């Protein structure tokens, strides 16, 4: 009799474990998804006013598929995003995932700098568990607000077994994008997030998750970066090129102590002649210069119209300027060896 009771108890325990819901932490940083305005048809609103508990309460369906826990990391518009919040967020994500407290993490974030935060986390989080960034293009009080369904879809991506080892993902407008590839392409449209060089990696339609591709560059657990002991990041600036440009901004950045410059050049990363010479002088003073392009897609190639070997420049591969800045900041925490930094651009 005792043996039979033990067997029944074991079977019940197994059934309970089989149906145990995954634990998903929702880390809120602010943004339009947490914004509120003066009316359903008003375009004016304030980011980050809605707290994480209210975001969760607005989508009760997520509690049916996961054990949801919420934390407020910051309450800002993502145009205010900064290194301090990045480091705080990354270290908390690392703690939650590596300690086993969470099976996945969803991060609510403004759309202005979502791609930069996503790529930063993609390079520094040391876990293959799902990490999903999500936001909205219409604030919570707007007519046809997109935040609730985006959040529902994000949680579904976070609990999907197929999301493991995909790196950080951005879920918006029924699409799943890899952190390295995604960028915001439209100022107001809900279809704003695209991956111009590679395309989306999957879709999520009312919680139905499907993947079609996977990122191949090093990320998360395979990345070479570790921020465990890092409390600040080096200054790196972006310079945007244009016709009839001048070297003033390059010279000011160098004078004011920048450690690195991303040159968002014309075409295949070509600076205006006076800027080219100023950047070359910066390299002689120890500034790491990476050529990028203002075009928005495509590879910036080494030694094209610019003699990179002569000037000591590096090239960004096909990262856009804002993501090249993120990678260079992290690279400079490891090394000043330009050959090693170039290799990081070709592998991450």
Automatic annotation (TrEMBL):
Family label: Belongs to the asparaginase 1 family.
GO MF annotation terms: asparaginase activity
One protein family per Pfam: Asparaginase
Broad class of enzyme this protein falls into: hydrolase
Biological source species: Campylobacter suis
Keywords: Hydrolase, Signal
Catalytic residue list: 32, 111
Gene: ansA
The protein's name in its UniProt record: L-asparaginase
Leader sequence residues: 1-20
InterPro entries documented for this protein: AsnASE_II (IPR004550), Asp/glu_Ase-like_sf (IPR036152), Asparaginase/glutaminase-like (IPR006034), Asparaginase/glutaminase_AS1 (IPR020827), Asparaginase/glutaminase_AS2 (IPR027475), Asparaginase_C (IPR040919), L-asparaginase_C (IPR027473), L-asparaginase_N (IPR027474)
Residue ranges of every copy of the L-asparaginase N-terminal domain listed in the record: 24-215
SUPFAM superfamilies with a match to the protein in the record: Glutaminase/Asparaginase
Asparaginase/glutaminase C-terminal domain ranges (all copies): 235-345
E.C. number(s) listed in UniProt: 3.5.1.1
PANTHER family, A to Z: 60 KDA LYSOPHOSPHOLIPASE, L-ASPARAGINASE
């Amino acid at each position: 009799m005792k043996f039979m009771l033990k067997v029944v108890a074991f079977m019940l325990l197994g059934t309970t474990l089989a149906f145990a819901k995954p634990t998903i932490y929702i880390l809120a940083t602010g943004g339009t998804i947490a914004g509120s305005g003066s009316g359903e048809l008003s375009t004016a609103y304030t980011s980050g006013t809605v707290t994480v508990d209210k975001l969760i309460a607005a989508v009760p369906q997520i509690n049916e598929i996961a054990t949801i826990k919420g934390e407020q990391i910051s309450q800002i518009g993502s145009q205010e995003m900064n290194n301090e919040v990045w480091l705080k967020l990354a270290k908390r994500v690392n703690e939650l995932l590596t300690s086993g407290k969470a099976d996945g993490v969803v991060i609510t974030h403004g759309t202005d700098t979502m791609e930069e935060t996503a790529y930063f986390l993609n390079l520094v989080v040391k876990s293959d568990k799902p990490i999903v960034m999500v936001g909205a293009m219409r604030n919570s009080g707007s007519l046809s607000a997109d935040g609730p369904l985006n959040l529902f879809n994000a949680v579904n991506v976070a609990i999907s077994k197929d999301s493991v080892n995909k790196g950080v993902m951005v879920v918006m407008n029924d699409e799943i994008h890899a952190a390295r590839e995604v960028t915001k392409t439209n100022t107001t449209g809900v279809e704003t997030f695209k991956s111009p060089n590679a395309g989306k990696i999957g879709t999520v339609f009312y919680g139905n998750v499907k993947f079609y591709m996977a990122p191949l560059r090093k990320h998360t657990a395979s990345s070479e970066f570790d921020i465990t002991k890092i409390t600040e990041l080096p200054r790196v600036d972006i310079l945007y090129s244009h016709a009839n440009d001048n070297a003033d901004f390059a010279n000011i950045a160098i004078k004011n102590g920048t450690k690195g410059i991303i040159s968002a050049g014309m075409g295949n990363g070509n600076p205006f002649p006076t800027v080219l010479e100023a950047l070359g002088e910066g390299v002689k003073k120890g500034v790491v210069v990476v050529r990028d392009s203002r075009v928005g897609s495509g590879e910036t190639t080494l030694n094209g119209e610019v003699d990179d070997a002569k000037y000591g420049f590096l090239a960004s591969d096909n990262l856009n300027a804002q993501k090249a800045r993120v990678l260079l900041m992290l690279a400079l925490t490891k090394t000043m060896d330009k050959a090693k930094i170039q290799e990081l651009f070709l592998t991450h």
